[in-house]
Amino acid sequence: MDKKFWFIPLMLVLVFVLAACTDDGNVDEQAEGDNASEDGGQGGDLAIGMTNEPVTMDPHTSNDIPSAQLRTQIYDTLVAQDLDMEIGEGLATDWEQVDDNTWSFTLKEDVTFHNGSDFTAEDVKATIDRLLDPAVGSSVAFMFEMVEEIEVVDDHEVHFHTEYPFAPLLSHLAHNTAGIMSKEIIDEDYQNALDGADSDISAEDYYEMREEGGDEFEELSEDISESLGQVIAENPDGTNHLQLQERNPGENVVLEKFDEFHGEERNFETVTYRVIPENQARLAELETGGIAVNDSVDAENMQRVREHEDTDIIDQQGLSMTYLAFNYEKEPFDDENVRQAISHAIDRESIINEIQDGRGVLASTHISPSVIGHDESQDEMAFDLDQAREYLDQSDYADGFDATLWISDDEVNRDIALFMQDRLSEIDINLEIEQYEFGTFLEMAEQGDHDMFMLQWITVTGDPDYGLYPMFHTESQDGSGNRWNYSNPELDEVLEAGRQESDEGTREEHYAEAQEILVNDLPITPLYYGELGPGVNTSLVEGVEIDPVGIIRLENVSFPE
Asked: Which residues constitute the domain of residue 189?
């Protein structure tokens, strides 16, 4: 049969990641000495090449990985996660669950913000109150929607009161979008927005109105929504080891060492994040010493980086799952036999080995092995065309049908889609592929009018609640993540029980049950779990690490003597 492939050239601004142009003609000009020194492990500037430009330094107005790379260095969170996603101290030195709906946090003393102000519980309250403010319209507000009140007990103790027991609260507080900002910069940001809306009230007056609610508050919050975040984006104010020095849109962001940092000494003075979208340009910069770290090495060049005398790959199992989504309410995808037939007709192993040069792990459930509660007892979805035909024969579409697959404008996505098109044709499913710019694609996928689309979900907290509740709970059809109109009351009950259960063993039982339900229902079919592999120039830098979220960790960086 003839392959059908359509590219839809709708030029819209990308929603989550921005790519910028760069001139890669001078990749040999930067000397290796710029990244190293003769101080015996000390260095000047650490240069990191980024595929995409960060969206904003404001933690509440974007949830993209490029922005998170920088914000993780600028802001501290109340608690932190290590490379194994285990919870440890952040700005809180101790915490306890006082009762089912109350958590108490003891805060670290003698901590200073970049602007020189002292860190107190008021900053925690101001940060979370802002995150939940409808005027901000945060894309991660759903992570804290259960928080009813932040109670300031004293300067160094704060209580979180939740509407219902919420077991994953600590992992959510470790997420980069929960980075603590100074109340001073938050006040300044609100006042700037209020002034821009020609309002004569102060930021403190606005906070009081927010507590009371009502029509007047709703009207004012709408008036200031477009201006909120301007001050914070340009002057991020955290307590972590790096602070913003300068940002040159489309080129780089420079962070400098914060001398009053409350943690251990760092071995560099500045970190420059260079925006280099082209794979080959980043690779050349890595090999010649223009950058010490390449945030993303494409699969076909992995071996080249490993074999180069000065470069290597940092391997890390990721938290992502790439999946094929069905429209659960639309014929013929409302038939579970059709979903099973398509799922068994996909050769996942060949996708990993032939298209991605072996990068990726065969998927068995809807959360990756790096996520707490991944059910290892589930088998990978078998590639079996005979079984796929049997499922199709049990449906009302034994003779096959035509369908459309939406994908974003990514070369790997296109290759995978064409590969699936060939396989599905063998069971008489004629697939037409439509490719869109990423922002357009996301906007369309959220409308729920698709037949099928392919996308990736990253369980960024490492907790199964984030991996399953936004994706599959009925209430998440509001735009949180359930784009396929899936609803199963039995699963809803299991997911609600999982997020409210404090005993880890019992939680894992709930999530094992949830994964079994999803493997049977298949509102989406998991394809593979992601593997991370940034490149590093080992002659320039040592101790670079990457966590399963994809954040490049700089805590242990040093420079070879």
From this structure: 76-234
CATH code (residue 359): 3.10.105.10
Write out the chain's pLDDT in tens, 561 residues. 444 444 444 333 333 333 333 333 333 333 343 444 444 355 789 999 998 888 889 999 888 888 999 999 999 999 999 998 899 999 999 999 999 999 999 999 999 999 999 999 999 999 999 999 999 998 788 899 999 999 999 999 999 999 999 999 999 999 999 999 999 999 999 999 999 999 999 999 999 999 999 999 999 999 999 999 999 999 999 999 999 999 999 899 999 999 999 999 999 999 999 999 888 999 999 999 999 999 989 888 999 999 999 999 999 989 999 999 999 889 999 999 999 999 999 999 999 999 988 889 999 999 999 898 999 999 888 999 999 999 999 999 999 999 999 998 777 888 999 999 999 999 999 999 999 887 788 788 888 889 999 998 989 899 999 999 989 999 888 766 888 989 999 999 999 999 999 899 999 999 999 999 999 999 999 999 999 999 999 999 999 999 999 999 999 999 997
Neighbours of 320 (CB within 10 A): 22
Do residues 76 and 82 lie in contact, with contact meaning Cβ atoms separated by under 8 Å?
Answer: no
266 inside domain: no
Query: Does 475 lie in the same domain as 327?
Result: yes
91 and 127 Cβ atoms separated by less than 8 Å: no
At which residue do the structure tokens 């809803």 appear? 492
- Domain with residue 156: its CATH number is 3.90.76.10
By DSSP bridging, strand 401-408 and strand 452-458 are: parallel
CA dist 152 → 76, 130, 361 (Å): 19, 15, 45
Q: Are 401 and 339 in contact (CB under 8 A)?
A: no
Mark whether 379 and 494 lie in a shared domain. Answer: yes
Residue 60's Cβ-side half-sphere holds a number of Cα atoms within 13 Å equal to 26
Q: Please check whether residue 304 lies inside any domain of the structure.
A: no
Are residues 335 and 478 located together in one domain of the fold? yes
Asked if residue 200 belongs to a domain, the reply is: yes
Strand order in the sheet with 242-248: 242-248, 252-257, 270-275, 45-50, 293-294, 535-537, 311-313
Contact call for residues 451 and 330 (beta carbons, < 8 A): yes
Residue ending a domain, choose from 213, 234, 255: 234
For residue 95, give every residue at least 6 positions away whose Cβ sits within 8 Å of its Cβ, in sequence order, or none.
78, 79, 103, 104, 105, 106, 170
pTM for this one?
Answer: 0.83
Asked whether the beta carbons of 119 and 237 are under 8 A apart, the reply is no
What sign does the dihedral 443-449-455-460 (CA atoms) show?
positive
For residues 396 and 521, state if they share a domain: yes
Taking Cα atoms as reference points, which of 286, 361, 281 lies closest to residue 320? 361
b or e along 495-504 (b: 16 or more beta carbons within 10 Å of the residue's beta carbon)?
bbbbbbbeee
Among 190, 206, 234, the domain-final residue is 234
Task: Assign 531 to helix, strand or coil.
Answer: strand
Domains in the chain: how many in total? 2
Would residue 30 count as lying in a domain?
A: no
Task: Measure the CA–CA gap between 4 and 285, rounded to whole angstroms.
Answer: 38
- Of 431, 482, 454, give the one whose Cα is nearest residue 351: 454
